[in-house]
Amino acid sequence: MDPNAHALLPNIADLLLDAVFLVDVHGRVVYVNAACERIFGYTPDELIGRSMIDFVAPEDRARTWNEAMQVMAGRPRIGFENRYIRKDGRQVHVMWSARWSPENQLRIGVARDITERKHAQEMQAATYAVSEAAHAATDLGAMYREIHRIVANLVPLAGFAVATCDPKTKQLGFPYQMDLYGNSPIIQEPTTRQYCIEVICSGQPMLLTDAVLATPGGDTSMPAGGAWLVMPLITQNETIGALILKSLPGTTYSDKEKGLLQFVSAQVATAMERKRLSVELLRAARHDELTGLPNRRLFQDRMASALARCKRKQGRIALLYLDIDDFKQVNDSLGHAAGDVLLQEVAQRITHCVREEDTVARLGGDEFVVLLEDVRTADDVMLVADKIRHAIRQPIHVDGFALKTRTSIGTALYPEHGMEAEELLKQADKAMYLDKKFKARTFK
Question: Where is the GGDEF domain (predicted)?
């Protein structure tokens, strides 16, 4: 080779967009071209003499070292990908081509920055992942946890929270908060609420210091420092909330990361809105619109499950079948709106008379049914029935009137009055009408 041409090689290498590295048998850098500063943030002088593996992202070091051993054993490699930590603390994705020079005892590597390409892939993957999370999650809480995991794979997080805005009341809530250790809460809710409202109204992200939102005197395991990024959750029609993301100590969010998170936030907003509507539709299909109680369909499901448990454990359950005495008279004299208020109040009073694990359902009209599980004796059932009668006898104020009403109640126990749901319902319904006839004769 012409000596002059040989002398030009370093200058030519400095014109390359890819970084060129020469690394000795001990893994120390002996030469890099100018492109390394653009890709890694370090000047050549800052890299030469240092161990190459020290700049590799910790989670990639083991496989990178194994790859280096393969190259030094005489197996050239094209297309190996790993991550490095730039001088500014951000990660850079790199694709390598490398071979070993036995005569010079050097590993020759060419590194191409593929961070932009990886970000594009991550955005596409995040879109699919968020959509899948919304589809697969059994409830909104499960979806928030999955979205936290997805976002943490895109950007290292010290904490993550979701703020949601109720579409009817416009009240802001925080249904999910978690740091990287699984601790909660992580934010000062009153302060955070102010900033979230500002972000929701403006539709623009906001970057805040750690001290602004962090919980005072909170868990000391929560990393101090870093920054909070509040991202609006915008659907096609409105802003429905915000994502609140805390960066790791000593780091902040780059413009590229903000752009990526803004893109992901839009997907998250769409998924959340879709899941919320799905949950509402499912609830509407299984709950009574007026009282919010389980409807006949949901009651039948719970009854079937309760019977199955009883048969396995040889337990007992009871049904209470109720209707409101003279309900038609209320509708006729005060109107259906007053009747609706009466039904809502009765539903609440019945619910307050039973345990959380019991089921109160509205079958239709003024008919309610109560499913009591883990019943010990018939006397216990009668105590609940008397408690409900007493609660409903108390005056109910509707449109300035103090209504005094009563309820007729029939009971049925498993297994004494039947082995199947239909048998028990018929028995309880029959007992309710006997109770109504008895009172009609008594109060005539």
Answer: 315-444
